[in-house]
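Example 3.2
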Amino acid sequence: MQPARKKLGNYIIIAFFLNVFAILSLGGVCILMVKDIVHNITELEDESSNVSRADDINNKTHEMIFAIHQAIINIDKYYLDYAINIVDDVENKVSLYKAEEESSTKPHNKEEVKILEQMLADFAGLRKEINSIHKTFSETGKLDKTSISKLERHASAIQNQAVKLNKIHFEIINVLVHESHNKMYFILLLYLVSALVGILASVVGYIILTRNTVFPIKNLAFATQKVADGDLSIRVQTKSATEIGALYDSFNVMTERLEKHEKQREEFKLELERQVRERTSELRAANESLRKAQVDLIRMEKIATLGQIATTVNHEIKTPLNSLYMNLQLLTKKINKSELQDDAAKDGMLAVTAIIDSEIVRINEILEEFVKYARFSSPVLKENDLNEVIRNVAQMINQNAEKSNVAIELSLDDNNGLSMIDAKKMTQAILNLCVNAIQAMPDGGRLFIGTHQTKQYIITTIADTGTGISKEDLEKIFDPFFTKKEKGLGFGLSIVQRIIEDQKGWISCFSELGEFTIFEIVLPTLDLNHKQLQQEG
């Protein structure tokens, strides 16, 4: 497995530090803005204090003028003294105010200092006029109108200077308030922009995380479930160079190996099943061969026993039977030459000898057939045309078939090659089967004789539409002495089977009672026969 070229953890760390940097930057900007706002508030506090001072000066000036007016109205010196005290107090405050402004570095201080200096000059004039009025009043008990008029002008000038001073402060206050509002709006805007950027970043981050992590994990989970269900052909694809890509590569390698192992296991299973089938088939073939060999051995033992019995019977029965037959012939001649007067008695004696003669002949025929089966001669195998043998048999039985109202159908494969057979014995076997078929169709029917060749065998089929053979009898029809006919010893099909087997073939029978009977003779082709001879040789 190749390691991941790009680390997913690195992306997460970069995103984390970018987020922290953005938060710290935003917080720093906000702190600076708040600091400026706090500074403006301090400035506003100072300016408000200055406004209060100017108002106080203005109010004191009004109070001083009111005191002088009271002095004029009441012609009382006390009010003049009180006005002088007010002037002293306000003049001290203005001087202190002026000293503070001179020590300050604010840009508008020069203008304020200039106004305060003018205000102090007006206060000086005001004091001068008040002192003049006070002196005149002390000496004459009257108030100098000219000095009062000058005093009012100085008072009015002081009030105007106070208004100018407040105008400057109000302008500064307006600037500070406007500046604070702007910074507050900037902070609000910065908050909204950062919130929007944060939301967009979160959405983009969620989409990227989902596309590059969540969806690939879901796809991998789906593929894993498919593998668990047995589908090992599934593969997952991704362009990711992170740990997800490495995980996909590992999954594909795992499924590929699992599929390879599963394929090997399946091939091993098929091979094992094939070997089991082959061994089973070989065992069945061996068992069948053993069973057939056992049957053949038993049959050969029977034939050998029959041969011994035939030899004994031929010697022990046929010799006395021949002697009996010769004596019977002599007896018949003597009866014929006798001079018996009673012809009826003579005819009766000749009838008895005739019966004995026919029975001796029948016993002799039975013995001949029995000996013929027991001493079955070996076939003389030569290359012959099996189709020609069948055509000759068909010609032999044609007249008998017509009499029995049986139609013969030939279907011979002209592509059949020559066969290594004994033509005489094959003629005997096929003729026996055809005669039996005709006899099985007393009311007429169809007799089919056909041949066809496979790769290794030539198959001859003889089928009739006769009475059929029961299932119980099918197992016995090739046994010697088994017959359902009134006449016959039951050697016919046994002889047919021996003829076919002596020529390396086999015969089988299929029948349905009342419907049909089919005999199938299988003989090896000439090539297979040569191969068998070479193997045996």
